[in-house]
Amino acid sequence: MICPECNGDGGRQFIACKQDAHACLQWMDCLLCGGTGRITEERSKLVAKGARLRLERIGRCETILEASRRLGISAAELCAIEAGRASPEVYDRLLND
Q: Between vectors from CA 54 to CA 70 and to CA 51, what angle results, nearest 5°?
């Protein structure tokens, strides 16, 4: 399946610095697919679960920080979960609590 994060490109360019009024572009591999541009069906399901969890959090008018404190995890971990980048075990633990 094509990675929804990078649209199959494997990553993206970003401005890393400015020198003499010129931008220095650097390539960064996609965090979701690891630079391959493709994800497994299992990862695709985790992306969908993460999106659902994010919508539920937003529906409760909770920030990432508020929700992460309530769940007893770091804000960075919750961000990774919502983006579909966490391990399957994390989703199982979160959804079964």
A: 140
Which two tokens mark 90?
Answer: 């994390």
Where is 53: in which H helix or E strand?
Answer: helix 41-59
52, 26 Cβ separation under 8 angstroms: no
Considering only the C-alpha atoms of the chain, give the largest distance between any 2 of them, rounded to a whole number of Å: 54
Taking only the tens place, the pLDDT of each residue in 2-19 is 999 999 999 987 777 777
pTM of the predicted model as reported, rounded to 2 decimal places: 0.78
In this structure, the strands spanning 22-29 and 11-19 are antiparallel
User: Alpha-carbon distance 27 to 6, whole Å?
Assistant: 12
Token pair recorded at residue 68: 């992460």
Q: Which residues pair with 2 in a beta bridge?
A: 38
